Amino acid sequence: MSHNNSKSMTDDRSTSTSTSTSSKSTTIIKYEKSSCLFCNEWFDAQTFTEHLIHCGQVLEECPNSCNVFVPRIRMRSHLKECPRNKHNLQQRLSASMERLDQHADHRVQVLEQDIATIRSVLNEEIRQRLHLITDVGNIRKHNQVVEDWTRDTDESINELRRQLEEESAQRVFATEQTQVDTQYCCNITQSLKDQVELKLDDMQQHINQLSADVSYHQNQLNDNIIKLEELVFENERLNRDKFVQIEQFLQEINEDIKTKLGTSSDFATSKQATLDYEVKNVKSIVCETEERIDKLNVIVQDLDKSLHQTMQNISDIENQLAMQQRIASVQNIRGHLIWRIKDYSKKLEEAKQYDTILHSAMFSNKAFGYALRLDIYLNGKGTWKGRNLIACLNVLSGEYDPLLNWPCRLQAEIIIRDQVSIPLEAQDYVKTIYVRKKSDDYIQNNQYFHIPHKVITSRNYLRNDSLFVEVKVLK
Length: 475
What we know:
By secondary structure, the chain is an alpha+beta fold. The chain has helices spanning 2-23, 45-54, 75-81, 87-92, 94-259, 265-326, 344-354, 453-456, and strands spanning 33-35, 42-44, 59-61, 69-71, 336-341, 358-359, 363-364, 371-377, 388-396, 408-416, 429-439, 442-443, 448-452, 462-463, 466-473. The longest helix has 166 residues, at 94-259.
């Protein structure tokens, strides 16, 4: 009976465990202690089964089959008092036992019902305990998770506080450094402004001097041209007079030869030789005069080109001076330039006639960076002349060259802007170039690029006789 009860209790406990496991398949429950149903003592899982075997409160059936269940610890005293242990009494009490069988059967049924009730109650209590243990385990796990989360949260908060403190310190330092840099930039800007104003004054004086020199040289050139023209006209007149005189002289000589032909052949021969020599001298004089006239024409053309180029340079300087005065010495230090070329047709004709070069305003790729300028040959240059526009992005000598990295390597985009009415439909013409400069006295020859004239005259690149050229320094 005791063994059956222990087995039943163990089966109930295992069933409850299986039910709990099936209801929560993701939870594995491991109980550290269990309670004995007979003595109500708590034991470890390893010693619980052994305790059930030796527990003194376990109910066991009497081995004499007296239908009595007594605790194991009282079994010996029961065996001494068991009525079936005495055979003589069995004969005498057989009659009474028969009378008591009915009462015993009824008693057994009641006891079995009571035991079944107790088992159900115990099973219910075990199930409740298992649920409680499961809940306690879940609560412990939840508490552990909460503690881990709290610990991680505290660590994260501490880390965030540390980062905030570092960020605050960095921002304070950056603010102070920005203030220092701003003050430095203000000082540099003021110094540059003063220098630019001085240079503007010097350039204005230089322009005035150049204008005066150009006017003087132009007047001299005009005077020389007039003198050359007078000299050429005078030489032509003298040559015509000489030719007339020579023709008259030759006619007289021919008449004289005809009249005196029969008198002396030696005299005629010497006279003919003299005439031939004089004719050769006259021809040589005429040739020398023509060569001088050609040289003078070449000199006049060169002087005209030089004068036109000088006037163009003066115009560029005046435009740059006016632009610098308008922007109040604010420099373009973003590596970005938009240049509007006005009167394109007129300047193209001048380029065809005088090989003029157009120079953009100076700009820089960054603050205190390289000094840059875009030069354009509207009619081309060399083998590209007459069919293309040739341009070159030059690195000039700047104020901050000793502080910059050399050799200089830049990448830029040259953009011919499409002047359409709807900006979203614009299709700009873009060229990517690489600018390299090793030192102040050496520039590589692969910095030129060409744009065909037919491209410029297509779409709306040329509008109102103006061309917009944009320069973007990429890196």
